[in-house]
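Quick log. Single chain, no ligands specified.
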Amino acid sequence: MDTKAITDHMASLDKAGQQEFYQTVLSKLPPDTAASGLGTYLAAKPARVRAAAVAQFNESASGTAGLEGPTRQAGDMLWLVVVTAFAVILIGAFITLAAGVFVAPAQNGVKPELILTTFTSAVGFLAGLFVPSPALRNDGNNQG
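-> predicted structure:
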């Protein structure tokens, strides 16, 4: 098949068909060949065409890189399970600490510091869920 026939075929495809074609081609090429071929092709094109091609290349390449994320409902369920589990740990550690104030530690028993560590770890984890990510802040102070 010659270049003209391929170009004509690509023009007749919709965006999803073109993306599928690009993904198939990219999956067959070694990554360094695909990147250098794209660079050679884009060197002679105007900036508008280069930007569109790079965007489409990145979109196609990212479509082949792994699994999709969970659905919104599954994500909400995962958050509910995680937060509930740590809330139960937090409450259990608090009750154990409160009861430990009135009971002397047994000889060769569990040290109260272990329960305090569990309590503070659960509080830290739950607090960390509600703090905004520094990576998502855009106040000009980030050095990344």
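The chain has a mean pLDDT of 77.
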